[in-house]
Queue: 4 jobs
Job 1
Amino acid sequence: MTLFEHDFVAAGSTERPVGDTGRMLQMMTGYWVTQVVRTAAELRIADHLHAGGATPAEVAEAESLDPDSAFRFLRACASLGLATSTDGKRFAGTPLLDTLRTDAPGSLRNLALWGGAESHWLPWGRLADTVRTGTTQAEAALGAPIFDWLAAAPKEAEIFTRAMTAMTRGLAHKLADVIDLEGARVAVDVGGAGGNLVQTLMQRHPRLTGVVLDLPHVGAEADASAAALGVTDRFTFVGGDFFEQVPPADVHLLKFVLHDWDDDSCVRILRNCRKALGPGGRVLVMELLVDKVGTPGLEPLMDLNMMALSTGRERSLDEFENLFERAGLKLASTLPSASRVSVLELVPA
Ligand SMILES: C[S@@+](CC[C@H](N)C(=O)[O-])C[C@H]1O[C@@H](n2cnc3c(N)ncnc32)[C@H](O)[C@@H]1O
């Protein structure tokens, strides 16, 4: 039997696959869609097809593309439900594509750029070696550990930081709803990237001073984000290394940081937070929590993302508690939020 005797429906297609063979073929072509979406984001297809649509020649002219390839790309977009065309000549964007518009509230464009960017794409291409060796493939694929590589690749670093902001923007209010900052004057977002989380908290708490500690190259994005959210006068970016030291605070925020690192590295970061906590201070760890095997959900796949890219992993609550204990901290409460992310509140043991 040849491939095409099966129900060969590419991933993301508006057709429905039939049976396990069809579904398996769809899984095999998942990466095609990742790169269609990344390319649509890069070439601002959503912006071009918005309001009246455009012909492939118009898009090609605007983005300096090969016209025939632009047509073929838009035709594929139409087969994925990203565009429509009644005459095969003029294409309009769908609401699905509109999520990538540059000016859409909560735009997913920066996340789409990141999902298919080299920093992710190349290590994922070596997933089998990760599983074989139990080691991250960032060095083999990129030549350096992921955050070192990003520090030397300004364009990719900008994509990464903006993607973190885009992701956090969708979560920050849900987390802020369960975070009690009563009595806190200074909050430090440790590895806070663009700082959307602490800046959202600052908007809600007008007397709160906010700091982002992150690698120095992230500073410009963090300052721009603070300005966009109107909190510049109470915000400071500190370029530094959380393995060395962390600025003093009443509350340290650690969101999606521990999952990037192996246990010993996490303990170093947590110890540095503990050392820098003011009296009555707290550390708030915000992460996905891995549930029992077979539970459907994002966590086991995000765990593979960490495995391919970094030395990190997704963890269960028990695994986190073990890290906290080693760092001289104890879990005071676990606060589920209206998202997949839990807030773990830690105090000195
Ligand atoms: C997965 S991102 C999370 C960003 C942010 N907390 C969020 O949830 O959107 C991890 C962050 O850790 C930062 N980082 C990595 N190594 C660091 C180090 N040694 N010191 C300080 N920040 C670091 C990265 O630059 C990145 O912004």
Job 2
Amino acid sequence: MIIIIGNQKGGAGKSTLTLLLANYLTLVKKRTVTVIDMDYQESLSQKFEKAKVLENEEPYEVVKAALEDFPDLLEVMKTDSQALILIDLPGKLDDDGLLPVFKAAELVICPFAYDEFSFESTVLFSVVLKKVSPDCRLLFIPNRVKANVKYDTQVDVNEQLSKFGPVLQAIPDRIDFQRTSTFQTPLAVFPVVRPVFDALYKQYLKLTPDE
Ligand SMILES: Nc1ncnc2c1ncn2[C@@H]1O[C@H](COP(=O)(O)OP(=O)(O)OP(=O)(O)O)[C@@H](O)[C@H]1O
Ligand SMILES: [Mg+2]
């Protein structure tokens, strides 16, 4: 299954959520995961190379790929139907090379924040995605939600985004998230993301009904 983690908004949490989800899927659910790093800054693959030096065994592979390599990669990836391919997208949409990625996606996870600029980018991303790939399932994860802030737009934003797909439970803004790496979810972060990923897994990713 090809899963994109994307949003046009920079800093929404795409790379962080990609790693947290990859860690969850391999460590908790024992699934086969490959992460494709299409973020131009290549942050995940750099982290992966560093982590590889430190760890003995890699529970999943992080492959750095240019957008133009995607069609070839797809041919290979399609051969394992149970594998979960997580694609970390860059925070910009102005590249035609993204079209085959959007078309191949079976599920798109879109992290976003409750601020005005994030909303516009999130809607733009959703409109483009749905235009290119109308049947693709899209879901939203509010991220970096601060406990002591009242977001005036929250209800409206959720209502607007719900037209494209469900809005899952929010992930709070916590400094520990910045220590997330390949193969390592900071302990304090784990219980915070677990309910969100459990819901996501149950609804979209599980292999058998009683899993
Ligand atoms: N829930 C959170 N709480 C606190 N910090 C977070 C949270 N989620 C992400 N961050 C931090 O926010 C910053 C941006 O996150 P990240 O790099 O994952 O975003 P991105 O969408 O991949 O950005 P880009 O568009 O630049 O690729 C990072 O420093 C990350 O550690
Ligand atoms: Mg990123």
Job 3
Amino acid sequence: MSIPDVSDKSLAELISLRGQRAVVTGAGRGLGKAIALRLAEAGADVLIGDIEADLAITAAEQVAEAYGVRAIGVAMDVTDGSLVAAAADRAVAELGGLDIWVNNAGVFPSIPLLEMSDTDWEKVFAVNARGVFLGAREAARRMSAAGSGGAIVNIVSTAGFRASAPGLAAYVGSKHAVRGLTRELALELAPMGIRVLGVAPSFVPTEGNMMAHAAAGMPAGDDDTPPTPLMLSGPIGRVGVPDDIARVALFCASDLSAFMTGSTLLADGGSTV
Ligand SMILES: NC(=O)c1ccc[n+]([C@@H]2O[C@H](COP(=O)([O-])OP(=O)(O)OC[C@H]3O[C@@H](n4cnc5c(N)ncnc54)[C@H](O)[C@@H]3O)[C@@H](O)[C@H]2O)c1
């Protein structure tokens, strides 16, 4: 199926996700939760998957409460194909289908190269790269079977475009992989009416991000600690907030971006210019 021309739709219709069903991985907190909230505000029913079941369930309750959509929280480890498939099946069974899949779950441990074990490397790739492959495959299988197309949004990073900081070799490698996967999947899935886009955030303080920074001995950049140049290197001159990323993800998931596939959009305050 081809991706239709939507130029006769109003702006409100283009941004609306009413009647659509979305899965967001790693959405118990952080960027994923912000994305789930914006998708729900646009009218989508949402399945929130997270390896932390409690976080997923609480976030789903908050999303449902905020926007009156159906939201379910599901324990899901994106590295396990059977759990990813089970979550996709739940979306189809309980929400009635699957139109949007956001591959957001990611990990970012900082480990100096000389100390990085094979297992360290593989753990990062298992979540950040294999998790995206598994999510995209399970989503595309169901979207293709339903024959109504869909959108897959991969949360990449500016680390998918350039080096980041010492200790992030596995992270930077995995995010470059996701950016490449975004291009290739766009090519392969377009004939099924499925668009694939990436969103590449720069530094955004989130719970996981701050823990990773603290573990690496980097300053937090909060009210008590001056931000590092790494955090504020963009022309916009402030650190991002989760909603800066969520709005771009909504754009990618909606018909506003109907003529786009394969791109990874920088949401980085201009820091990668
Ligand atoms: N925050 C940033 O500065 C930033 C910048 C660029 C890219 N990103 C990317 O954005 C995404 C979200 O980052 P965040 O800062 O919100 O992180 P976070 O740690 O705050 O949240 C990540 C969520 O993913 C979940 N998760 C971890 N492993 C999982 C797994 N195997 N299966 C399912 N869920 C899992 C965690 O439980 C957590 O709820 C990641 O892909 C990250 O690489 C973040």
Job 4
Amino acid sequence: MTQTLDAPPQGAARRAADWFAALEDAFRARDVERAAGLFASTSYWRDLVAFSWNITTVEHRAGVTDLLTATLDRTDPSGFAVSEEPEEADGVTTAWFTFQTAVGRGKGLVRLVEEDGQLRAWTFLTTLYELTGHEEPRGPGRPRGAEHGVDRQRLTWAERRAREEAELGRTTQPYVLVVGGGQGGVALGARLRQLGVPALVVDRHARPGDQWRSRYKSLCLHDPVWYDHLPYLPFPDNWPVFSPKDKIADWLESYVKVMEIPYWGSTEVRSAAYDEAAGEWTVELVRDGEELTLRPQQLVLATGMSGKPNVPVLPGQDVFRGEQHHSSAHPGPDAYAGKRVVVVGSNNSAFDICGALWEHGADVTMVQRSSTHIVRSSSLMEIGLGALYSEEAVAAGMTTEKADLVFASLPYRILHEFQIPAYEQMKERDADFYDRLEKAGFWLDWGDDGSGLFMKYLRRGSGYYIDVGAADLVANGDVHLVHGQVVRLTEDAVVLDDGTELPADLVVYATGYGSMNGWAADLISQEAADRVGKVWGLGSDTTKDPGPWEGEQRNMWKPTRQEGLWFHGGNLHQSRHYSLYLALQLTARHAGIPTPVHGLADVHHTR
Ligand SMILES: Cc1cc2nc3c(=O)[nH]c(=O)nc-3n(C[C@H](O)[C@H](O)[C@H](O)COP(=O)(O)OP(=O)(O)OC[C@H]3O[C@@H](n4cnc5c(N)ncnc54)[C@H](O)[C@@H]3O)c2cc1C
């Protein structure tokens, strides 16, 4: 065990150092039982790729034993070192650490508690951050750019880039094809580029950022800037707290250029089939109207969690004389001043669209079918995100990387326990606001167990509104509120299940988005989608019935039951953080490093 602190460690530092020394000793002796004994009887070890070649959480000593039995020998972990002064609070010692494995370098965060007079791990996060021999060319290892000296074959940077572009897909194949060039696809594209893995990002939109440009015009990000940085290139400190959608779109477009991401716009993937024997995909695409085939070995669907609109099919839609569209196709309010608009739905998009329509003088009715969780943006920023992602956190020395790791270190099994008090605080602070909404008849909820927004996002990816003002319009009746299920349309009205008729010139279906495994079914096959199981959400492994608790976001950023198929996406925070682990898994496969996956015994994943 190496101790990086200069003076002999005292107090918390001493205790953490002793715990790591004991852990390393047990690891060196390959004594799984002794190592598991260093964990508390209730404990959680979350591993991001370092030990498991998976994203996985194991629980309690039995889970630790299981993980170590399968992985200790081949991982050969060593060099555990506490990397900064541990903190002590409420009987928990929290320590950052670094370590090495047989193939790479890792970092992590442990929370130690006392149990039976012994210091034991309560939560333990291990993450791989680089592969030995495949370090990114950064800092002292950055490229030189100019090649001094003389060379008659010299090509400029622009010439090399042009040649690379001309060859890609013709004489060279990408090892990884990323379908979808939104924030998820480009974050991964940037990482793969840095790691030297031949990759190509394709998108059916013409320009990077069009995903955001094409959304309703009033949209600004709901998450604040500190939470939204992309890898390598944080937003400058004059960037607005909430990015307007066209500004973030331009940033994504610049990002693709600056990070030199191989990117084809106006390119649609039509189908993909995996050839087991050859270990590669046959992907049929149409680029600028021209059909072509690519043969990557790895296929990443970064096609968006909010990319497949759920549009209800209702009797009467064909006779309705007004306009109707899904929220994803809503152009904005300009054309609807003085018009009667029915917005079906009561989550984020519904509120944003209702607010903008009202501002433009439309007569707006919101149809609420089931309850919604609402949290005020200011309260969420202060109470929910402030400690990790805020100007104050930055001033206190919190980096984005550290914040992401702190967040990742809270196991999903108990994350709600950390969230509930925060949402109770918000409920109390904004009691008057909630009271007014309830008096207006709005159905509110706080998630299944009172754990609020983030858990709802992880579990379902929907069912909430981060209030930036439009909730008041519902509370004071400026936007009319009705409850029920839309059952049909007439020539000029929306009809609810209780018979209520809502006259309408425009109907907006703010009815959300379908799951990402729908994309796998569309592009590959239903059979492949079924084999993979649900994508997104926390809970049991849905390919088995009833499946064991997985403890992770299903199928995201990790090996799936379809060899060579991966899913990537989520909000900007997730795209940033988890793209690293996905990129490392792909890099290892490209480099031929063995990647035996723990927890997917029925999948060999040799490549
Ligand atoms: C109204 C709204 C507001 C949101 N606000 C926020 C926010 O404030 N903060 C936040 O972090 N997140 C927000 N999100 C959620 C999420 O971050 C965004 O949806 C984001 O765009 C997701 O990025 P992505 O890269 O995963 O997917 P997308 O941006 O949806 O990109 C997927 C891409 O895949 C392409 N594609 C799909 N199929 C194919 C195919 N067959 N061939 C080629 N290309 C294909 C699509 O053209 C699309 O460009 C919001 C979402 C919506 C709808």
